[in-house]
Fold these 4 entries.
Entry 1:
Amino acid sequence: MSLLVTALAIGSVYALVALAYNVIYLTTNMFNFAQGGVIAVASLIAYSALADWGVGLLPTLLLCGVAGLLITGVQYYVSVLPVTTRAPREGEIWLVSTVGAFVMIEAGAQLIWGSEPMGARIATLDDLVWLGDGSVKVAAFVAIGSAVFATIGLDLWYGLTRMGKIFRAAAADEDAAEVRGIDTRRVAIASFAIAGVLAGIAGLIILPLTFARADLGSLLVIKAFVAMAIGGFGSIRGALLGGWAIGLVETYGAQWVGARYDAILVFALLLVVLLALPRGVFGPPEGRQV
Amino acid sequence: MSVLNERARAIGGGWRPDALTRTGVLGVCFAIAFFGPELFSQSTVRTLMMAAVMGLVALGLNLMMGYAGQLALGHVFFYGAAAYVAGILAVDGTTNLFALLAAGVAVALAAALLSGVPGLRLSRWALVITSFFLVELMPSLVDLWPEKTGGLAGLVGIPRVSLDGPLDTADLYRVAIVLLFLWLLFQRALVYSAYGRIFAVLRHDEVQLQSLGVSPYRLKLTVYLISAVPAALAGVLVATLDGLVTYEAFGFDTVILVLAAVILGGQRTLYGPLLGALILVYAQQETLSLQNYTMLGYGAFLVLAAVLLPRGLIGTVAERLPRWRTPFLVAAAPGDREAAAQLGPEQPAGLAVEGASKRFGGNQALGDVALRAEPGRVTALIGPNGSGKTTMLNSISGFVRLDDGTVRLGDAALQRSSSAKIARCGVGRTFQTPSIPAGLTVREAVSVSAFAGRRAGLVATVLRLPRWRAEERTIAARAEEVLRELGLGGVAEEQALDLPLGRKRLLEIARAVVTRPALLLLDEPASGLSPDETERLGHLLRRLADEGTTVLLVEHNMDLVLGTADTVFVLASGRMIASGTPQEVSRDPEVLNVYLGGAVPDDKVVA
């Protein structure tokens, strides 16, 4: 039981990161690489606030959300907007500029906080819960609950509300959306804003599970991408499913096969899913081609 | 001669380097690099060696990402895997250079298959993930066999590769330079051929690629495998350079370095990635310890390069010098004209559709439709909007799978084949909306369709064998002939993307015709054409039919239909309501009713 909760908690960490990537992918068809760096900085800020400055949990949550919003906003205006307006036909140049922003954020975080992982005892979140065969942190349940809550909330919002549908229309066909009076740039800005707040909050939620470290983004980005690939790119519920699948394979793989195989097992999971379901579990259906 | 004049007019006057000059400049560069140990200091030679190694990896990435337009991040893994395999083999058994190169390339190809087969199937992003994951897996894989790989501490004590005897550093450097230039020659020959032209279509529109008879999956996988080779060569070279291989050299930082080298130098430029690698390797050697401030500057540099120089250094210069552009298609010689005299198919074949039915959700787009089109005749398919004409064309060309019914071309049953296979059976088509790939001139854009039927394979292409040259000249001559027929001869050297809509449409028709298809499907070819252009089109269709082509035309322009069609079929609400000569059909009461009155009940109107 405690192993299962641990697995789902790790999976929920990946899912939260994948959700932040997905919110941007869903409307712009871009992977904003720097998002992983934003989460790392948010968790470092959360660490400093809780451990060094003695700020309470709720103000820290607010602080992290605002920090995520601001960093992502600056990053959008510096590394995404100029590229999409100046060189829209040059393929995936945004990949280079967002990777560059990622490198900058990570290097900046290392200058401020150093490169060692930092863990602090956080009231409530670090308390242990006994589950009969072992104990897990309260933070594990918080992570699972947040991932489920964020998934359901975003899924309903994109699926049911008018604004959510507008967001998805902007991604499906930018030109057609523009013709119908949708300002796709504003949709993109709003998506980066949502993803920024999400990344900021995620930074706090995952802090007790991952510790705060400047290179956290590098460690999480690939798992988040795999979660998206398994669940289907742009699928909100797919991100949760993919994240949990990775968490389960990693945790039980380490238990049964050996810890050094966990990454290889996740890779095998990815290959099997892509061979069986090339668009991922909740990927878009095959559209009309011509 | 007129062709040359047209070209000179289109691209402006002034000196432009011919193929001989280009190769000469490349040869001089090679000689300077080759004699580097005699000319430069030891540290400069080391920088050049590492630039050659990273340049090879970047050339591979550019082939996949730039030319084929497929994002992949796995080339650093191929590089690392080849380095480890070469290192392990050198420690355990052979140090022979060719054996190590073969082993390195083999393992890189295996890794490319492992990530490419699942990664290239449908989603554009899957390959990014699988190939990126390979890079992240490197430490785990190395840790699996620590006794062979040296584990996380690294593999040390690798002996130098040998040819006659162990190579010294200067000789190893020369080997690197030779391999680099051989690969450059290979990539240049590959890119400036039918491959380079079809890459433009692959980057632009995979549906169009299928309509030209090429499977996007197979083309992408082929390019991915080819692009793994230079990365593997680089890995073997670096393994024995210092006698040391550590997994850290093949991590995310190196992925970024290679990606940045391609972007900085210029995607889709032959030498850009090499220039980018040289600059970045030099900068890295100068600021040896990658401290945090260096990383901060490096990140800022990536952002600035992407924002300010999206086409890269060489790409930006090339943009200013359009007349220096290397053509993707050879020029036709006057003697090739005879080869282009015949536009009709080698083997004429008739089209027979029986009982075709297709339902989209609640809409019966086609209901038990039969249609015949004979070789040597122009057959028109007309009907109101939404009557199922385009669905019919899509079913014949394999983009829509019929629920029921058969489609035969000559003796071949097509209804279960993929669209690419159908195109290779001799079915050429155009689409309602012209879709023209960027970066090609009109004559090059017309010739892209020759790829699927090419007889000169990869080896003949890259070695520029006479077989390859003859085929290219035939295609060039036929492209010129079709363009002349359609009145586009004067714009053959213009950028295809800059043509007005009507001429783009004619270009697509020319593209479908140059492969001499047995069956030509045209979806509203005359819309947007001037009367003069329509007349030329009618003339071409008549000529094609006379030479044995089966022409099936979907068209609203009644002048064109009545003037050129031998047989007319009329669709309404997914049913064939009439067929016959233009005169018979135009007097048919049901046809008149459908066209003039609101005879189709609302519930039968198909979207």
Note: The mean pLDDT of chain B is 90.
Entry 2:
Amino acid sequence: MAPHTEQLTRPAVQLRGLTRSFDGRTVLDGIDLDLPAGQFTALLGHSGSGKSTLLRAIAGLDHKVTGSGQLTAPERVSVVFQDSRLLPWRRVLDNVLLGLDGREAAQKGRDALAEVGLGGRERAWPNELSGGEAQRAALARSLVREPELLLADEPFGALDALTRIKMHALLRELWKAHRPSVLLVTHDVDEAIVLADRVLVLERGRIGLDLTIDRPHPRSYRDPLLGEYRERLLAALGVTEDHA
Amino acid sequence: MKVRTTPAAIIGASTEHPCTGTVASTVRKAQRACHTPGVVGTTAARHPGTPARLVAPALALAAGVASLWVVQAASTAVVTSYASSSRAAAVIDLTAGLSLLAAGAATHDRRPRNRVGPLAALAGVTWLASDWVGWAEGPSLARSVAMVAAPFLLALVVHLALAFPSGRAAGRGARALVVAGYAAAAVWAGGQAVAGDPFLDRYCWRNCTDNSFLIHADAGLAGALDQVVLWSALAIAFGLIAFGWRRLVDASGPGRRAMLPVIGPALLVGLWAAASAAGRLDPGAIPAPWTVVKTAGRLWSAGTLPTDILTSLERAAYGFAIGLTAGVLLALASGLSRVGEALIDGTVQLNRAIPTLGLIPLFILWLGIGESFKIAIIAIVVYIPIYLNTHAALSGIDSRFVELAEVQGLSRFQFIRQIVIPGALPGFFVGLRLGVTGSWLGLVVLEQINATSGLGYMMFQAQNYGQSDVILVGLLVYGVFGLISDSAVRLVERRVLSWRRTLSS
């Protein structure tokens, strides 16, 4: 089990029989899921498997979607999107503080920017940031609200490989410092294995595999013991490695 | 001692010997400066601090003061400055000449020594020489010398422009231009002096002086020379423009970059002036630029132009203010609420389909032929583009930002204030610029058809009397105001949308 087992008593997110459908096509088919508080979970799946639909359901962003089921989520939820989604007309600090006000919040925003390595860039315009920097700012924006649950929808999907590795380390560090529950949606098996303590595979609207990854951090891509998890996950996703 | 280039340092250091240096490069520079024979002579350079240093600036200033006296004396008699018979033009003319002299005197002792100072001073002298030509009471030799000196102004200005600021014209093309300038000036001055009878000169203005150097008056030769000089001057001017263009394009400074859009219009005006000077344009159809400027000055001092401008500005301002307010309010109402959209958008689209200027007869019936119908028409012309662009920007807000606002827990008011409105500002400014242009367009049409005062009325009257220069003055004023208002909007836009600047850079 993960080293923080004792914290996993109170579930942060509880789904019972969650169903969502678009135009009569069932995307989520009665999902039952508990995400314990403070757990780092990754959600894998093919494109179109309903990963994003599940995340948006938990975030409460699916207004015009038909569905049923029971959903409990914490009050303070932050979302990191695939694009940084910074408002181009607000400076970086003001973007981080979007929806907050007061002097105290400003200080928190500065601290959050320093934490993601953007100290000193408070007055920059989003257009002046690189892709990685923008995604760091987006992380700071989600952190500054001290979320109990952090939902990340392929947050590194648009970054280059080198930046992605750095961002993995940063995300893990931030999680260690703040301990929110994390649900990281990704289609990258390696990313899921390196970052998460539990990996879910979503297949045809159901959780096809629920895997706890019991390896110490920081993990390396080259860790041979992770290979076993990797094969099981790929098998669950219906992918066989020809070259293996 | 190290030789520095700031003027203050030069003045402060001039008591010491400039030819001693410690750094190798400085020595070379200083030595070159010391051995360059100048107008004043090498002694002055070798022994700074002697009164000889002051000879050149003193001579230049004396020439300036003498010119003042000449122009003053002439203005009481037959002629004033050649620029015009008006006092203001004479003042501008003299100020320009004296500024060149002063600039030359001020930079004359700059170290490292270069030609910029002497060139500027000489250009000032030749500039003022054309005033001496008109000195009717003066000795004929002074007038003749001035007549020979005056043509060199163009060549000196070309040289100055190409050699600034290093004192050397860089590149083969630039040096060829300088030489061509001097050659053209020499041919013109020499030809005029030897063969030009001033009484036969078609460019002779007001009084035609005698010519002390005249050997044999030959109107045909003088005329042919004039033609040659005119075309070569044009060629040199184009060369200069091309050169300046390349310099501007190569330069990276934001100030010089900002000047780029001015080049095209300047070229056009230059062509117009050149064609007028060459007599290629019918002055009844297209008067020369200076005629237009003179007419503007006359209308201005007569007081009719300021009144007309004020009347027109007032109409445009009222119409624009009403149109802007209406456009923005309607766009907000229809962009931010479904009820508003249902009520407003279709109506505005309908209004847009009707050409606004076609409403003029109806509005005259409703509001009378006074001011209110004009203001109403201008307001309609203005509000439509502002409404359309602002509304499109408001309703086209990125759905990803809507989602973001929800995630961040923004209230509806915060969402509108922090996301929708700033996001719609670029669209609003597009509409605003179209609206500003529209207000002038509406004004021109209204004033030329249905007015009893204002700029358009002035032009309409001028049409009846065949005064094409007055029409051009009106167009010029319209153009200037259009340009100013557009630049003002752009300036505000740049400030408000400063976050966008990083996109283009």
Note: The first helix of chain B runs from residue 7 to 13.
Entry 3:
Amino acid sequence: MSLVGNVGTLDTPGTASPVQAGRRARWRYLPYYLAIAPFFVVFAVFWCYPLLYSLFLSFHRWDGIGPMHFVGLANFRFLVTDQAFWLSILNTMVIWVMSVIPMTILALLIALGLNSTIRFTGFYRIAYFVPNVTSVVAMSLVFSSIFSEQFGILNWVLGAVGVDPVPWLTNPWGIRTAISVLIIWRWVGYNAIIFLAGLQAIPGEVLEAARVDGASPVQAFFRVTLPLLRPVLLFSVLMSAIGGMQIFAESQVLVGNRGGPGQAGLTMVLYFYDQAFYYNDFGYGAAISWGIFLVVVIFAGINWRLIQRPARREGAR
Amino acid sequence: MTLTRRAFLTASTTLGVATLAGATVGCASPTTASPGRLTLWYSKDGLSETVLAEAVRRFPADRLNLTPIGDGLKHRLLAAMSGGAYLPDLTMMGDDIASYFPDADQFVDLNTVGAGALKGQYLPWKWDSGTTSDGHMIGFPIDIGPSALYYRHDLFAQAGFPSEPDEVAAAVPTWDDYFRFGQELLRALPGRYLLPDTKMVFTYSMAQQPVKYFDRQNHYLADQDHVRQAWDRALRAFNLRLTAGYGGAQDQGQSVDRHAAWNAGKELSFVNACWITGELKQSAPGTAGSWRVCRSPGGAGNQGGSYLAITRYCPRPQEAFAVVSWLLSPENQPRAYLDAGLFPSSPAAFRDPRLLEPEPFFGGQATMAVFARSASEVKPAYFSPWDITISDTYTDELTNVEVAGKDPAQAWADAQTKVTRLLRHQGVI
């Protein structure tokens, strides 16, 4: 009891010599440190240690079993001259752009639709959210059947309307499209639900006022709803950027570890996995992961600037 | 009961102490997964379950602890080895066994526990492939993957071409003969294709070679003419429009197309190791009775296969080896073939009457005779730890030519650059 009760008096001067007080204070704080210890222990063991170890590993050549050989910067020299790595960065960005733009528009439309439904509201909301909680691997398998070149449903439908079959999973742009569609399908419902929450937070009076002032529904959407949704839109783009940097399972299941023909489906994380866990080149794998880290830092910086700018402009006004 | 600050603090302090204590205790983990027992790690379907079940009863003193691993056995093994804890006593290895050669000291040299006496019972090339160049034997033969030509007997006959296994084998002794045969066949059967992709031609051409990319002393071969030959052959199949042009039939997306093609009778033939029979039966049950196998154009080759190894952490390697040699004995191999499709690595099993029965899926043909001959004729070859990476580099570039329209000369040059770069990075050349 006293242990806890005394905390408030710790700062009171004059009760003991400073040294004694310091020592006693340390002991008094012990329970608090212990109380927060579980998080920090887990953090140190499963997060901090692997992180530092991967940096250590990136200066070595190691097959996972035998002794490690120190190779200095060789892995990083190999990395910056590795066409596959640069291609994987490009692929990741391309797939992210190809998925995030259509997805945001689609999610917004779905959210507007959901916002105006009167019946079966719960059903629709759940139905749009289900893809998000479905296993990626299972979905990718289904998608690989849909996009399959000679016997896929999609090419069959295209054939029925007189379009030549598209080699979805062998053509570089076909591969990127297929992966993007899979990502859109998986995340559009999630984002629609977020947007819906945003839409419902917009006070009815504002829209009503716009209507009274003679704004058409389209004007009301672009001049009132969209500006008020800005924070929610930013959140959604930020979340999809985080997800977009980590695209892995979709590519792996659709086009395999090597990224498919022309390595068009090779994303950064897939390339890392390929080198570290398929070819067991752990040193180089670690170097790639630090390369990815740098790309993510740059990307986060750009993101941060974009989000900050409008706020600064408002501040200047 | 309300949560007071004191109760909360006490609870979380206890938790904190427990976590710290747990982290300390964790350091004293056992070397093998279950001390006092023999732990065996194997891939699902990589060993016969019936034989394993009998082994448990047969070796009660060893208290076998069987651990089937669905996927990623190698990852688990590497993790356990680098951690030096929870290791298996016995572990399965795939056809990438050469990647363990640089760390052969992690495994018991099977010659020291009496493997030498059994050498005569197994195929010599398979036996040697589990042994390093300085004679350290780490892998005991489980199964092998002899290759053959699978073809559609009904469609060959329908087109008026040779269709019985012996006739077909006689008509296509070399790859060139096979391609000529295919060109004529496709004229009679338009809208189909002779074989799935260039990757298959390259892979199985290389499988027939007595030398791959390295010599036994792990020196990269300066003379890679045989690789160029396999490459040119694969390109020829593509230029003659004999391939379907899947971007690698092993990949998920392409296997959908390929399975559909099997069912629709579009794939007239293919060269593959015997392990594909299971997939063929399962994915194209409607084609039962239409397939036959015969000697592959270009001759015998092997693709795939696995091994059983004893880790050096196993406290009783002698007893462990008794289990290994019983599990994989010539008497048990026919059971494994019938049970899990594991092709015997011991020639004695080829003569087992149970394996020579007519197979309805192959129209009453006993395929064992074809595969057994292929298995016996495989030329011993040395696999280096980098062979799989190199082979992937070449087949990736072939796929780029085949499906992405890359210039073949550029693709060859790129493959060369990538291989050289990789080997230099690995410190091999």
Note: Chain B has a mean pLDDT of 90.
Entry 4:
Amino acid sequence: MNQQNLPLFEIFIRSKRGLDHRHVGSLHAEDPAQALDYARDVYLRRSEGVSVWVVRSSDITASQESDVESFCDPMDDKPYRHATHFKLPKEVDNM
Amino acid sequence: MDIRSKALLNYSIALGDDSLMLGHRLSEWCRNGPFLEEDLALTNTSLDFIGRARMFYTYAAEIEDKGRGEDDIAYLRDCREYRNFLINELPIGDFAFTMARQLMVDAFDMGFYAGLTQSRDPMLAGIASKAIKESRYHLRRSEDWIVRLGDGTEESHERTQNAFNELWGYAAEMFEMADDEQLLVDAGIAVDRHVLKTDWTTTLHTVLRQATLKIPKGDWAIGGGREGNHTEHLGFLLAELQFLQRAYPGQQW
């Protein structure tokens, strides 16, 4: 079988109840059901989690390198968007 | 040693042999798998079977109480002393053959280990309750693959059909009782193999039909593994399996 023909899947694992699913890596599989099985063998061998999501990599819409300036740069001229901008009254000092 | 302890010893060794031979065969796929993910899955499965062998041999050594350990039982016997069913020692063949054998064995193991969890022997029941969880996953994999391969391309269909035709007659001995097995069944320790056949047949027929495969003709059966009569393949398997212990006696991890 030619691995080039197998679609890529991104694997997300929730390590404990109550926590978020986290991206742990990717793998090749024929379809989502098989990707789920392989995720068990590739990423869950050491009790890493309690739940798995698989997502076809091609279904992910990602930001582009060229978007960085408008998407990710901190808005330094708008300091009020950061919580640290606001002085807390003494009474709530330990917030 | 009384008759029942002797029977229990034989039973544990035979179950260990079944697991070790199949585990070894699956390990031969390591780095030879069709692609990385499947390579990992196959070797994980291999480790499940080798793990079972270790538990059965350790228990056998304890029953025997003659100072032999799991390694002695695994590595230091000759061909005729192994008691595994022949289906477990057959070479891996192509991927279709490997998965066809897995389906036959996994479907059997589901029924067998479910039964063994009810054993009055706490050690066997404990091993079984670990094994059944693994087998559930093994079966899920082998069912999935057989449907993919059978209902896949013309070539994968043909290879899978050939594999089942070649393997079919090896199933029979899994449903036969060894000479001293019945007394363990009567004592509530062992599983009655005869009653497992109906469910096994239903599972196999369902999966094969779904995979657009023909049910092979059941007009031949081969056995003898439990009496130590093996195929020519076991000797070669043991040569590889035992080499290290024979060349460096007592070598450990």
Note: The interface with chain A takes residues 34-38, 40-41, 44, 137, 140-141, 144, 148 of chain B (CB under 8 Å).
